[in-house]
Write a structure and sequence with these properties.
Blueprint (H helix, E strand, L loop, with lengths): L2 H11 L8 H9 L4 E4 L6 H11 L3 E5 L3 H13 L4 E4 L5 H12 L5 E4 L1 H4 L2 H8 L3 E6 L14 H4 L3 H5 L5 E5 L4 H10 L6 E4 L7 E7 L3 H10 L6 E4 L3 H13 L4 E4 L5 H13 L4 E4 L14 E4 L6 H8 L9 E7 L1 H13 L4 H19 L4 H8 L12 H4 L4 E3 L1 H13 L6 H8 L5 H5 L16 H13 L3 E4 L5 E4 L4 H4 L6 E3 L26 H18 L3 H4 L2 H10 L4 H5 L6 H21 L1
Parallel strand pairs: 1-6, 1-7, 2-4, 2-5, 3-4, 5-6, 8-13, 9-11, 9-12, 10-11, 12-13
Antiparallel strand pairs: 14-17, 15-16
Bound molecules: adenosine-5'-diphosphate and zinc ion.
Zinc ion (ZN) binds next to helix 17 and helix 18.
């Protein structure tokens, strides 16, 4: 490892050592070679192009689709004392001129640029006359036409190879299955590049998935343990986003809606508040979040089921980028399953496309229904190795009970059959439970041999049984026919008693934090006796953030403040040992924090 890169890591960023593949990647690119980097969110991708840009002569050009984030990235680099700027459509003519002049004069270390800007002949001419350190293509999965983040402009980026054959290129992404990875390499002319694939595990994220009963109340119970923490609540529809945000506001939370139907101005305001204020909840459709760089999102909650494990992984991945404990929480029910199955069926793709969609949905449902470690299922889906028990998901912490559901399933299936496969779940459950509703009487179903056969099983358990049979393809829901339940061929072995069925017992599990002391415990939790100092450190950060007009985490991350709290540095040299405190930040902010810490150290 070059001495220079490590020196930059220590003195500029204030970190001790490289993580995972960072050192190798930085070495590869610094030496002028191409690289393809797959690293989970929070893995530390930015350093992989920032440091080589500083090590090499010239300016590092970073192509990013996320115009809204460029300002923050540039701010963060400037806080470290790096000369960074961006070029995108948000700049005025004169601002743009200034940056172009700095660029020509070789005064910039980093230039962030939007892809649509880069492919303009004018920009290429401009760059051709500058000394370039490298090109970094961030969010590289945007070249994939299969993914939902596709950007046509990304396809033109192969021109970099033709136009600037001697400048090293590094492409980075957090979401890539093997197919997308191949696509990135081919479309960006990086088939010769060294690939660095890091595991997908996000050990600090705790996964929990529960049966949907009273969604709002379940959400509230979850949120009650997370007062004043920032998080995202995902809903499928715009209407539900607004309802949920209103409702949470009534419950005393600061919850802001975000969806594509809101005016751009309002969306931006909400996004900005989420980034800059503490403890804001964003309630959003999937339109929100791509590339949200906020490191201290403490939870991602899903009130609706994502349609694939890729989507789930990407959405939940927005939690805990800072490596501190975070929660991925979801509730789902029969309605979700039916709706997604129907969407997969009705999408206008080819038969093959539908098969792929269906397959992805099945994998997602498998993750929901599994009774063993969820992390293992998730990682195996991405062809990653995983131990049998992660200890940080609901199933590992409270292993679900299973029950022999064979007999109950037989009763249910035969009830569906005998009532003519014309009725929905509600009615079938009424018959099984022996309820003489108007509808039951009207159809004479109280005469059926299955009437009242299921009194000994709770309604929630019947509901879950139906859902699990639908997930397993033994029952089908006929959407056109009033959501009637129908049998499929797959249920024959069950009805004939040739196959038995073990299912999970539904219970609402209270999310629990891991035992204190373990690595991924909720480290961020502050002891009561430290609360006052903690609040003061955060207050100080907030004040500085407002003064410099940047989000608080650009000053220092929570983890950095927490380390101050734990180690109580009282001198600049002690302060420098804290992760995230480098020379420039020590000089700018060290004094303010040291004043507070010294005062507390003396008092105790
Ligand atoms: P990504 O872009 O892969 O999601 P980032 O580059 O934003 O991740 O890094 C995530 C966080 O980890 C940032 O706060 C970053 O400063 C921190 N980080 C990155 N590399 C290191 C390292 N070697 N040591 C300590 N912290 C690091
Ligand atoms: Zn687990």
């Amino acid at each position: 490892m070059s001495h220079k890169a490590l020196e930059i890591l220590n003195s500029l960023y204030g970190y001790d050592s490289f993580r995972g593949h960072q050192a190798e990647i930085i070495e590869t690119v610094s030496a002028g070679n191409n690289a393809l980097v797959l690293m989970p969110t929070g893995g530390g991708k930015s350093l992989c192009y920032q440091i080589p840009s500083l090590v090499r002569d010239g300016v590092g050009v970073i192509i990013s689709p996320l115009i809204a984030l460029m300002q923050d990235q540039v701010d963060a680099m400037q806080q470290l004392g790096v000369k960074a700027a961006f070029l995108n459509s948000s700049l005025s003519h004169s601002e743009q001129n200034t940056i172009e002049q700095q660029l020509r004069a070789g005064q910039l270390d980093l230039l962030y640029i939007a892809p649509e800007r880069l492919i303009q002949p004018y920009t290429q001419e401009l760059l051709a006359n500058c000394k370039l350190a490298l090109f970094a293509i961030d969010e590289a999965h945007c070249v994939s036409q299969w993914g939902h983040d596709f950007r046509a402009d990304y396809l033109s980026l192969s021109l970099l190879q033709e136009r600037f054959p001697n400048i090293p290129r590094i492409a980075l992404t957090a979401t890539a299955d093997v197919r997308t990875r191949k696509e990135i390499a081919e479309r960006l002319s990086l088939t010769d590049a060294r690939a660095f694939v890091s595991g997908f595990d996000r050990p600090n994220i705790r996964y929990a998935i529960a049966n949907k009963t009273t969604a709002k109340k379940q959400l509230l119970d979850f949120l009650k343990q997370r007062q004043n923490e920032a998080g995202i609540v995902y809903c499928l529809s715009r209407k539900k986003v607004e309802d949920t945000a209103n409702w949470l506001t009534q419950q005393g939370f600061t919850a802001l809606p975000y969806h594509a139907g809101l005016p751009a101005q309002l969306r931006q305001t909400h996004q900005k508040r989420f980034l800059r204020d503490d403890g804001i909840i964003i309630v959003a459709t999937i339109a929100f979040g791509m590339g949200i760089d906020k490191p201290d999102v403490r939870f991602v909650a899903h009130l609706d089921l994502p349609k694939s494990i890729e989507a789930y992984y990407q959405e939940t991945g927005r939690a805990g980028r800072d490596g501190q404990p975070a929660d991925a929480w979801m509730v789902y029910g029969l309605q979700d399953v039916v709706r997604l199955q129907q969407m997969a069926q009705e999408s206008d793709g080819s038969e093959q496309f539908k098969r792929v969609e269906r397959h992805k949905l099945d994998a997602m449902l498998g993750l929901c229904e599994v009774t063993s470690c969820r992390r293992k299922v998730l990682l195996n889906y991405f062809a990653d190795e995983a131990s049998d028990q992660c200890g940080n998901c609901d199933n590992c912490q409270i292993p679900p009970q299973t029950w022999d559901a064979t007999e109950a399933a037989q009763k249910l299936l035969s009830c569906v059959y005998r009532t003519g496969q014309r009725f929905g779940a509600m009615h079938v459950m009424d018959v099984l439970q022996g309820k003489e509703t108007d509808k039951v009487v009207q159809h004479g179903h109280q005469q059926q041999s299955t009437f009242g056969l299921g009194k000994n099983i709770h309604e929630a358990q019947w509901r879950s049984l139906i859902r699990q049979l639908v997930v397993r393809g033994l029952l089908r829901v006929d959407i056109e026919g009033y959501s009637a339940l129908q049998l499929t061929d797959l249920c024959r072995p069950i009805l004939k008693g040739e196959q038995s069925l073990f299912l999970r017992v539904e219970e609402i599990k209270a999310p629990t934090a891991k035992k204190a002391g373990s690595k991924s415990a909720r480290k961020a939790q502050i002891l009561p006796e430290d609360q006052e100092l903690w609040d003061e450190l955060r207050e100080c950060r907030k004040f500085l953030a407002e003064e410099h007009n940047v989000p608080p985490y650009v000053i220092f991350h929570d983890a950095t403040l927490k380390e101050m709290l734990d180690t109580m540095p009282t001198s600049p040299s002690e302060m420098l040992r804290i992760g995230g405190v480098g020379d420039s930040k020590l000089e700018k902010y060290g004094g303010d924090f040291l004043d507070i810490l010294r005062r507390y150290a003396e008092a105790s």
